[in-house]
Design goal:
Order of helices and strands: HHHEEEHEHHHHEHEEEHEEEHEEHEHEH
Number of strands: 15
Distance between the termini: 21 Å
Largest sheet: 9 strands, mixed
Structural class: alpha/beta
CATH topology of the largest domain: Aminopeptidase
CATH superfamily of the largest domain: Zn peptidases
Number of helices: 14
Radius of gyration: 24 Å
Oligomer: single chain
Length: 426
């Protein structure tokens, strides 16, 4: 049976999705603002119990892997084929919202239900995954579960501690994982046919352009750096303006130079942010002596990130020298951009365009797909975020838009299932 005929029978139930989202998002830490559900907490445990039961009701066999990811499996008619994987996360940032992450997991469960209710068997097995701790955790690490699944959670990370002294290794074990088996269970390239994820956009583009669905072109690379500007602290009343080595004034000029560079036109879109800053001694009557700030550059084109950083380093050094300041720059981290393969992108676009007005756009945020790209081709579908807001209590996506995203994801799953090599070249 062709994809179009099968997809017509597999319309998601909007009311059921609404009920699921409201129920799952209701597992919250009421001592925190918003819809807070941090990993490795009792609220997360309870939500996982609820989620596992929904997976079983949908006909999935449920297990927890070594990295404490919750996985539901629906067998395919051809057990020799690698699984089509659908996933996302159900943890939130503190003060987060009700849609980020969870709609991707619930979408996989809804697809499994629809297949069961309509008596349709996929050729490929279907895996629905709730990845552990996608958001930055209390251990200073994000995408914990997806890292662990693909063998990218080394001992150094496992031995990191939270404020209570608990190690990440211990936390994963408490969550039902088996850290000692991470290396043995690590997935290898080719162990999934394709990885698909439905997610809220977390930005304003879809809403402002009137599109209901977005096909992700790729996930941006993120280059982070730390800068230290050292001047000379001195009395604010007795030090003449011409004799000051004011680190904060130097930062103001350097920070604006960074913004100016990031606003220029390049071969690919780029955003740059200075989001963390310390000023010492941070007193109203003292000329600032030291400023330390972190900055990041994001783009689908790594060369653009590098071009901006080189230009910034040169301009910042010139400004510092002119002001008699010392400047030190150091790299913090670098994640490469993850492109979506052309064939995957085309198939997802066809699926989305058959459901609702569709745009193509990059993902400016990281996702579990960053890690799963080590073992399989990845593809993502975005649905609109009202006002472009996310990671806040006001985060909102209309339930009808979520349903449209699930319908498009269903069509994509059926399309990839019909392909003998879903992630390969046409």
């Amino acid at each position: 049976m062709d994809v179009g005929n099968r997809a017509t029978r597999l319309k998601p139930d909007t009311d059921r999705l609404r009920s699921d989202i409201e129920a799952l998002s209701g597992f919250v830490d009421e001592t925190k603002p918003g819809w807070t559900r941090r990993p490795f907490t009792v609220w997360y445990d309870r939500s996982r119990d609820w989620l596992a039961e929904r997976m079983r009701e949908a006909g999935l066999t449920v297990r927890v892997d070594a990295a404490s990811n919750l996985i539901g499996l629906l067998p395919g008619s051809d057990p020799s084929l690698p699984p089509i994987m659908i996933g996302s996360h159900t943890d939130t940032v503190t003060g987060g919202g009700r849609f980020d992450g969870i709609i991707g997991v619930l979408a996989g469960i809804e697809i499994a239900r629809l297949l069961k209710e309509n008596g349709i068997a996929l050729r490929h097995p279907l895996e629905v995954v709730d990845f552990t701790a996608e958001e930055p955790s209390e251990f200073g690490i994000s995408t914990v579960g997806s890292r662990g699944m693909v063998g990218n959670l080394p001992d150094e990370m496992l031995e990191r501690t939270d404020a209570s002294g608990l190690t990440l290794r211990e936390a994963i074990a408490r969550q039902g994982g088996s850290p000692e088996k991470l290396a043995v269970q690590a997935r290898k390239p080719g162990s999934a046919a394709v990885y698909l994820e439905l997610h809220i956009e977390q930005g304003p583009v879809l809403e402002q352009t009137g599109h209901k669905l977005g096909v992700v072109l790729g996930i941006v690379g993120i280059h982070r750096y730390r800068a230290t500007i050292a001047g000379e602290p001195n009395h604010a009343g007795t030090t003449p303006m011409s004799m000051r080595r004011d680190a904060l004034a130097g930062f103001c000029e350097i920070g604006l130079a960074f913004e100016r560079l990031c606003r220029q036109t390049y071969a690919a879109d780029v955003v740059g942010t200075i989001g963390k800053l310390t000023n010492e001694p941070n007193a109203s009557n003292v000329v600032p002596g030291t400023v330390v700030f972190d900055m990041e550059i994001r783009s689908l084109d790594t060369s653009v990130c590098e071009e901006i950083y080189r230009a910034f380093a040169e301009e910042a050094s010139r400004i510092a020298a002119a002001r008699g300041l010392d400047l030190r720059l150091e790299p913090l981290s670098k994640s490469e951009a993850i492109p979506v393969e052309p064939k995957v992108k085309e198939r997802i676009y066809e699926a989305c365009a058959s459901v609702a007005p569709t745009a193509m756009l990059p993902s400016g945020a990281g996702h579990d797909a960053n890690q799963i790209a080590r073992i399989a081709p990845i593809g993502m579908i975005f649905v609109p975020s009202r006002g472009g807001r996310s990671h806040c209590p006001e985060e909102w996506t209309d339930f009808e838009d979520v349903a449209a995203g699930v319908e498009a994801l269903t069509r994509a799953v059926l399309s990839f299932d019909d392909d003998p090599a879903p992630g390969g070249e046409a």
